Amino acid sequence: xxxxxxxxAHSGRLxxxxxxxxxxxxxxxxxxxxxxxxARALTVGVAIVGLFLLGIAIGGVRAIQVPGYGExxxxxxxxxxxxxxxxxxxxxxxxxxxxxDAELPGPPVVTDLRALLRDVGNKPWSICQVLAGPxxxxxxxxxxxxxxxxxxxxxxxxxxxVLSHSRINxxxxxxxxxxxxxxxMVIIDAAARAARQPGSAPATGSSSRSPFASxxxxx
Amino acid sequence: xxxxxxxxxxxxxxxxxxxxxxxxxYWIWLLLPLVFAISVVYKSVRVESMRRVPLEAVRxxxxxxxxxxxxxxxxxxxxxxxxx
Lengths: 219, 84
Hints:
- The complex is a heterodimer of chains A (219) and B (84).
- With 219 residues, chain A is of the alpha+beta class.
- Chain A contains 7 helices and 4 strands.
- Helices cover 64% and strands 0% of the residues of chain B.
- In chain B, helix 2 (31-46) crosses helix 3 (53-83).
């Protein structure tokens, strides 16, 4: 019985759910494309990428938050500081932004898992933004680059990109984060459809089951 | 790449993607494209036949906008009540 959800151009290709999931992250909608649902692929792909690009157009590319880098586009490093507490002086590790045109005085934050997770916690929307795929990674690289000081035509140093504030920044971050979360939903659905395809590869072993396959109904 | 747009349009008041769009006075209308995109993607995932997506996405968008307006009105009423 033909599947009413598939396009007339459905090629009937089989694709494994992990491949569909990875393709869906690399290019929003590509997961659907691999399983032959072209119209669905184009619709969600254009919507998600369009939403992301509209977000960085509204708030500027610096609306993309990049863990491991500071406000001026320089990498964060770990520094030891001595702080006075009630129980005495303690040495703590803090994240600081590297000075301009100088070597890092300490190990980069990205090389320390705890410090990196702490910085991700300071920039929680980055988790959602990265779900949009390489377009978010490219945007993040551009955001870091746009944060660095350049010499303007009038000779004054200023970041290449302007950091938006208040509602415009909130809306821009919301657009990019929602694009990522929508892509996650699309990835999960595409992988589930790939697992339900007739003739898809059976799970190895009688007791194992693909996490994306629906459970059999009870007798 | 960061300087490309600046070099191409050094005299323009607005540099795409490097500066925010000057729409801060109309920020509330920016929620509409967001709601539209959410509706389109959600219906594309849920509905089997893509031919039904446009109409169902518009319906969902209207529902979301109405619900947000009602929620905003209710919250405004609450704030006014507690401020007196």
